[in-house]
Each structure stands twice: as structure tokens, then as C-alpha cells.
């Protein structure tokens, strides 16, 4: 917990503007829904772009240095977000500055998440890989659950203290506190591995089967993070930030209660159940007639998504040696980044073409395809458990 707190702090910063940015870009700055979705997804595209470099950096220089660099990027992202709010009377400049902050936040997320996971695997041992990934995810979505409603409230403050200006200043403060804490932690003394690292492209190929399933399952979260606020607005509903909190709360609860099932039953078995539940949640969100039922369906989606990453991640990381652990986590996370990076603009295109109604139905169908693919994988590839 002493190390994974940095993931919590990072994702509080990520969650702060999540329900604010789409409306800010579309309603305040006057840009299209596609661009509003892209402004959210750009963070994930940036994370995807640096996964290879991040994984190798962790393996080469150590996890603590990666986390420190990520916290510096968090501070710089907050500075640009603050500037974006101050110049919103110049829409193109405000948007450009905001996009720059999203790029830096994507870099920060990659550095911190991979760094924290490898750091804690080194502290707790490879046998705890599933628990390490699970706790990292709890802090990821728990941070979003804390940050999203807080950001929505701060955005309503009057004058310069409202909008994205305050969100940026709070982000700077959180990043600086994280830097102060992280500098005091001793790094883990690393043991030299006898085998040389393998090329990242080969690592990526080894985790490809499970990564593809992860990408299909992650599109639901991409839709919720980038389009849920607009979906609620289109239906004249209130409570988008509350629905995001329900998503995060159900996500955390399932990981707390069921994460040990990954070691007991195998990663692919747990992932299969989780993806099925997520498919049901997305279908229910598509058909929900009221904001209350939509919020419950969002929570069911979060419960299903909760164990998908750690369950599939255990099988993926087991395909490479310990000298490639950072690269494997980075390569596996690439598929999550691709799903989230493409979800914003693609789903924005769906909205412009056929409206908001079928949005989450499309995501449910894609998640169901992931279920079918995982059933095939369970026949062809054995599920792996962490060593130890």
C-alpha cells in the first residue's frame, strides 16, 4: 500500500477532469463531439505511444525512477490544464493547451502504473503478481471514483476558481505531494537476471492473444469514460459523475472480494466470467430507460471489468521471464491503451452517424466477441498461475 498510493494519486488527477472535459470542449469551446471524445482519449493514445519505452525503462533503470518521472509529468500536465482554463476565451489556444496536458498525463500514467506494479512485484514476490495488479487497479479506478465527482463539483465554482482552472491547480498540488513522498522511499535492490531481455516486438507477440481479448473488454470502459457524460446530457439526465463513482466503487469491491480467485481458478477462467458480466452490464446500460437504472448498469459493467486486466495479465506476464517483467506489463497494457485511445473518436463517429441510443449496444457486442475469443483461447492455451 505504501507504494501503490502513487497510482491512487495519479488516477485522482486523471479522474478530476473526466466528466468535465467532454462538456468543456463541446459546450464551452464549441468543438464537435468527435473532438470532445478525442480530448479524453488522447491521454490513452499517449500512454500507448510510450508503453514500449516505459517498460524497458523500468527494467533498465528501476521502478522508483519511473514513478518519479511520472509524477513530474503529472505536475506539468496540471500546469497546462490551468493555462487552458485561463485562456478559454481563445478556443483554439485553450484546446491546444488542454491537448498538451492530456499528452503529458498519458505519459505520467504509463510511467507510474508500470513502475508501481514492477516495484511491488519486486517487494512482494512473483507469486503475488495477481494481487499486485489487482491492488494497482483498485487504486486506479478508486482514484477515478474519487476524482470524478470532486472535479465535477470544482468545475461549478464561480469565476477563475471554476472550470478546468481549479482542476489544473489541484493536479499540480497532488503531483508535488507525490514527489515529496516518493523521494523518501528506498528503491528495491535488484538481483541481476541471468537471461538477456528479449525484443519488445517479441514480447508483444507473446501477449497478443490475451491482449486482444483485453482490448475488446476495455472498449466498454472507453465508452463510459469518454462518452457517458454526453450520453446522460443527450437523455436530459443528471448524475453522470455519480455513475462514474458507482462504476469505480463496484470495480474496487469486486477486486477486494474476488481477486484471490485468480490464483485458485486460473486467469482465463476468472476473465471469462468477468467478461460475461461486463457484456450484461453494457447491454443493460444500452436499454436503461432512466438515469437510475443507467447508473446501476454502469456499476454492473464496472464489476465485470474489474478482474479482466489482472486475470488476463497473469497469463500474459507468465509468458516471459522476470528480466522482461516490465516489458510484458507494458506490452499487455498497450492493448488497453489502444482500446481506450480509439474508443473516443470512433464512438463519437457512431454518435454523429446514428445517435446516442446504440452506443453501449455496440460495446456490448464487441465485448461478447471477446468472450467468444477467450473460450477459444482456453481450448488452445493453458491458463498460467504466478510462480511460487
UniProtKB/TrEMBL annotation:
It comes from the Bacteria. Residues 1-382 form the Major facilitator superfamily (MFS) profile domain. It is a multi-pass membrane protein. It is found in: Cell membrane. PROSITE patterns: MFS (PS50850). GO terms for cellular component: plasma membrane. GO terms for molecular function: transmembrane transporter activity. Keywords: Cell membrane, Membrane, Transmembrane, Transmembrane helix, Transport. It holds the Pfam family MFS_1. The chain crosses the membrane at residues 5-25, 31-54, 66-87, 99-121, 133-157, 163-182, 203-231, 237-258, 270-288, 294-314, 326-347, 359-377. PANTHER family: MAJOR FACILITATOR SUPERFAMILY MFS_1, RESISTANCE PROTEIN MDTM, PUTATIVE-RELATED-RELATED. This is MFS transporter.
Amino acid at each position: 500500500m505504501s507504494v501503490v498510493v502513487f497510482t491512487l494519486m495519479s488516477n485522482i488527477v486523471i479522474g478530476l477532469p473526466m466528466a468535465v472535459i467532454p462538456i468543456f470542449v463541446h459546450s464551452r469551446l464549441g468543438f464537435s463531439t468527435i473532438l470532445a471524445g478525442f480530448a479524453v482519449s488522447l491521454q490513452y493514445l499517449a500512454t500507448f505511444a510510450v508503453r514500449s519505452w516505459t517498460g524497458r525503462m523500468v527494467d533498465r533503470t528501476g521502478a522508483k525512477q519511473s514513478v518519479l518521472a511520472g509524477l513530474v509529468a503529472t505536475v506539468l500536465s496540471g500546469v497546462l490544464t490551468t493555462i487552458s482554463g485561463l485562456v478559454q476565451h481563445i478556443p483554439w489556444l485553450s484546446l491546444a493547451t488542454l491537448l498538451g496536458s492530456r499528452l503529458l498525463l498519458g505519459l505520467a500514467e504509463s510511467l507510474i502504473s508500470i513502475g508501481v506494479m514492477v516495484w511491488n512485484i519486486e517487494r512482494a514476490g512473483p507469486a503475488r503478481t495477481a494481487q499486485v495488479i489487482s491492488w494497482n487497479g483498485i487504486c486506479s479506478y478508486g482514484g477515478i471514483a474519487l476524482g470524478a465527482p470532486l472535479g465535477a463539483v470544482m468545475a461549478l465554482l464561480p469565476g477563475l476558481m471554476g472550470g478546468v482552472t481549479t482542476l489544473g491547480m489541484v493536479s499540480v498540488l497532488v503531483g508535488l505531494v507525490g514527489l515529496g513522498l516518493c523521494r523518501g522511499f528506498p528503491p528495491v535492490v535488484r538481483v541481476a537476471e541471468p537471461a538477456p531481455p528479449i525484443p519488445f516486438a517479441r514480447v508483444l507477440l507473446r501477449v497478443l492473444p490475451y491482449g486482444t481479448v483485453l482490448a475488446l473488454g476495455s472498449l466498454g470502459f472507453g465508452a463510459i469514460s469518454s462518452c457517458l457524460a454526453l450520453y446522460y446530457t443527450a437523455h436530459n439526465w443528471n448524475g453522470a459523475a455519480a455513475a462514474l463513482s458507482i462504476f469505480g466503487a463496484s470495480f474496487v469491491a469486486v477486486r477486494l472480494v474476488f481477486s484471490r480467485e485468480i490464483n485458485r481458478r486460473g486467469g482465463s477462467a476468472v476473465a471469462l466470467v468477468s467478461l460475461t458480466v461486463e457484456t450484461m452490464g453494457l447491454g443493460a446500460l444500452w436499454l436503461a430507460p432512466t438515469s437510475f437504472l443507467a447508473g446501476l448498469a454502469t456499476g454492473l459493467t464496472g464489476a465485470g471489468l474489474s478482474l479482466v486486466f489482472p486475470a488476463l495479465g497473469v497469463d500474459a506476464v507468465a509468458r516471459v521471464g522476470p528480466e522482461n517483467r516490465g516489458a510484458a506489463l507494458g506490452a499487455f497494457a498497450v492493448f488497453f491503451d489502444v482500446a481506450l485511445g480509439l474508443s473516443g473518436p470512433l464512438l463519437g463517429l457512431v454518435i454523429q452517424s446514428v445517435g446516442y441510443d446504440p452506443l453501449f449496444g455496440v460495446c456490448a457486442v464487441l465485448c461478447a466477441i471477446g468472450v467468444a475469443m477467450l473460450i477459444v483461447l482456453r481450448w488452445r492455451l493453458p491458463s498460467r498461475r504466478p510462480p511460487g
